[in-house]
Structures are given as structure tokens and as C-alpha cells.
Amino acid sequence: MRPLLFSLLTVTALAADSPNPPGFLVQPGDGMKPEETARAMKLPDGFRAQVFAGEPDVHQPIAFAIDDRGRLWVLENYSYPEWKPEGNDRIMIFEDQDGDGRFDTSKVFYDKINMGSGIEVGFGGVWVGTPPNLLFIPDKNGDDVPDASPEIVLDGWEHQDMHETVNSFNWGPDGWLYGTQGVFTFSNVGKPGAPDSERIKLNACVWRLHPQTRKFEVFAHGASNQWGVDWNDYGQAFITACVIPHLYHVAQGGLYQRQSGAHFNANAYEDIKTIAKHRHWAGGSIAESRLGGDTTDAAGGGHAHCGALVYLGEQFPAEYRGTIFMNNIHGNRMNNDSLTPAGSGYVGDRRPDFMKSGDKWYRGLGIKQAPDGGIYTLDWYDRRACHQQRPHDRTNGRIYKISYGKPTPWTGDIAKLSDAELVKLQTSKNEWLVRHARRVLQERGANVGTELKALVADTKLDTPQRLRALWALHAIKDSDASLLADKDEYLRAWTIQLLCENGAPSADVLAKFDALADSDPSPIVRLYLAAACQRLPLDARFPIISGLLAHGEDKDDHNLPVMYWLAAEPVVGASPEKGAILLGTCALPKVQEFIARRLATSAK
Q1: 446 and 564: one domain?
Q2: Element (H, E) at 421
Q3: What is the pLDDT of residues 52-61, one digit of tens each?
């Protein structure tokens, strides 16, 4: 959540260059009152910022979630950056009862958390990251009082670098709880009491946990100090990171540029780089100011991007839908990037900064879409931008709401809707409604497979609407393998992923994968096949990989050469004979090089 720890040498060098290097040392002045900070925010025409909650009502907000009633569950962190066995971090519930954009009531849900770093609500309770544990605090009757002591779902989350531990909880389209962790914390995660053989070693990654089966896995490895993960209309995941380039499109099984250290797979040879076209202040040198053309303010770039929100509401002007918002801690602002499809992935490019704070103490963290289509953003609020400086001010913190025009207040409770109403919401253009409705269907195990399949098959609906019905179908443990032949590439691609969730698709499905690898014209489908191969037994992978490696048109794709190699590498390592076959038929020069290199390693 804080900018990533630079080496003492780098910090010393920066301090020697200037008495106040941008973003690193104490900002002058005494700060502003919450309302003054909101008024000083520069936003595009038609937008306004207001204080939803500020000190003394909220302190040190590090993460938050929004429940089915639109209430904010805010995790207050009084520990950072120190770790100790006990703690008094709190979960607060804030409710705006009259829809005016400011909270009316608040209450404490739980106040014995140490170093709370991530929170999400659902499945009869609250999920909390508090290293070394990921907790579930039950509240099945929804009375805002814990039913029992917290359950330790997973342990082994470490805290060598306190701003890089378990964070950024968010429900994915596939029904899993997602989060991230940074590069300088070295965790060994598993169920309490599990031996090392049943644990997963991880540092920089995107991880996921199934809330019902409690299965845990790494979704993708790499990056830096990522603090934010979100999905677009097509279920494509994006993360924002610090120090290294700030923006990544993340595919299942992908391996992404690290800030430091080696990948776990020594035979990976190459990783996938940022999708951002623009550069910014990173690694201690100013490559280019990230101000949408204004290069006079070097501090505005910053290298610490925090909180990822792909806007999928209806309240903002249409140009914002599908773009990604992120806070820029050193720049005291909120950036906004476009996400443009390209090959199997995306290109991210700068749009004008969405918000520039007139308060240099603004330290924006998480961003989430409100039920009415506005957005909430957390403000840690501190005159210091870096964690290594002491002391920290525990007396302040803010939550702002940013809206366009005069939004219509949303009232209701998604959890009280009927199954039929929840199914209907899967076609809404308001993603907040869609996601909450899908999660409630999953919690109920609703018997609505027939209705959802009808939506998936309805070609009068657009692709995102059909995908949302497909994800809801999967959430209630139903599927439709016939979609592998659908005319829509995203429907085919997502069906591949969902059929491989347990790693054991049928022989008939595997045969269809083989055929798709040979002849499917879509690079997106081929990306999902490469990801799926990593979940399959080696013998089942070989014919699929053979088909993928024949697509010479993918040689310059941003993702595919690396993803093909990640799928093929274990096959080549286990069987030099099969590796030699792949080498002879591969049409991608980079992957040919990797195969030859791996074969040479195996021969030693």
C-alpha cells in the first residue's frame, strides 16, 4: 500500500540531491480538514467530490468492502508498519441511509485485528487479511455482531515488508476471492497445521481462494508491490503496481515482470511485461512525468500506484466505461488509463488525470464503485509518503465519494431479492449489481441453471451480458461444454477456463481443446488454451501445445510466446523426445529458442 521500500543507498542519494525529493520526505504545512481537501480536488467538468467520512469518525483506512446493502466495511489499520502478536485494528461499518453521499451511522464490527491489510464481505461473514493469517469472521444472521471467534482459513502469510503482504481482496467473476501480495514478503501459505508439502510458497503474485471449497492457489506470479486487482466487461484481470511499470493485464498461469529476485521456475527464461505505453517515475529516476502532457510537475508522476478499479457503472459519462482508475500516492492524484484490446491482450495508455488533489497529504489507497455508479476512494492521509519515516499520525483518515451530476440514490438489499430477480440482474449494465447478485446466487446454490443457460444462448444480448450469465452458471456449479463451439471468442475462451477449474476435463472436452488449438482463429482462445494446459496432466497437454506452437502468427503477440512456453516447459523437461518433436514443428522463433535451451539443460 505504501511505495515500495527503496534501498538505503537510493534513499540517501535522493536526499543528497534535494532537501525534499518529490514524494519521499515530509510535505510542509499542517494539512487540511477533510472538507477542505474535498473542495481542493480538481476533477473534470460535471464531477464533484465530497467527504463520505473523515476524522474523527474514521482513522487510517487501509481497505474496504461494500456489502449487499451498499454499506462500507472499512478496515482501520493502527499497526502499520509494525507487526506484533496482538492488535487493535478495527472493522467499522458505515451506512449512508439517506443517499446524500455522507455516512449517517457507524458501528464497530470487530476490533482485535493486527496489521489488517485486506477485507471482503460474503458467504455469511467477513474475510480479513491479517498476517500471518487470512481470517473468516462469521456473521451468518447478518446482525453485524460476530457469531464466533475468527476462523483461521489460511496461515503462513509473512510480513517481512509490511506494505507488501496479503491485500486487495475482491470477488472474481469465477466466484473465487482474489488478492495480491508483493515481492519482498516471502509467504508459505496453507491450511493451519499443514506441512510444507501441502503449502504454496509465494511472493509477488495474484492469488485466489474458493470461499466454499477453501481451495487456495496462485493465479499468476510476478510484478512488484501490487495493491489492486479488478476485471473489465470481458472478465480480463488487471493489476496496478509500484516501482516497476504500473499496469498489467493478468492471465491465469501468467508470469510477469518482477521488481527483484528470481521467478520460482528457473526455466521460465522470460516473463510478460507491462501493457502500459507510457512510462513514469520508477526505480528512483524520472523517465517521464505522468500528467497527461503536463511535464512541468515532476512529482506528479510518482511510482506508487494503489487501488485498481475498472469502471463499469452507468453514472459516469460513457468515455469512462472500461477504463481503469488508480490512486497515485506520490502524485497526490488519481490516474485514469484506457484499456484497448490488442491481440490476446490489451494496451494501456494514459488519459488525462481524473483527480488532482490540492492537498499534498492525500494518500489514496483503495477505490471501489458505489451502488449508484459513483466511486469511493480511501485516503490514508499523511504528511509522509513513505513508510520508513516515523512517527505515523494515527489521528486522521478520510473516505471520499466522487459522483457525476446528480446520481439517483440506490436503496435496497441484494440478498433479499428472489432467485429470478438475481438472474435478471446478470444483464444489468451496472456491474455493482451484477457482481453482488452473482455472489448471492453462489451462496444460495440457486437452482436457476435453465434460466441462466437461456441467457447465455441469447445472441441478442451483448458479449458481456452473456459472459455474466456464464459466470453465474459456473457459480451455481453448472456448465455448458457446447459453448466451446460458440461464435463468440470470449464465450469459447471462458468456457475453456471454467471446464478446467478442477484440472480434470473429460476426454471429449480434451479432444475439443486439441481441435481448437489447431484451428481456432482467435488469439484470445489460444491464450486460454495455454493457461488451461498448465492445469492439465503432461500427457494431455502435448497435442494441445503442438497445435498452439504451429501458429506462427502469434510470434509477436504480447502474451502468447511466453504463455505457450510456460505450458510446454514441463513437457520438454520430462520428455526430451517430445521436446524434440515440438522443436521441429514450432513456428515461433522465441519458443524454439526456449525449447532448445531446455533440451540442452536436460542433456547435462
Answers
A1: yes
A2: helix 419-424
A3: 999 999 999 9
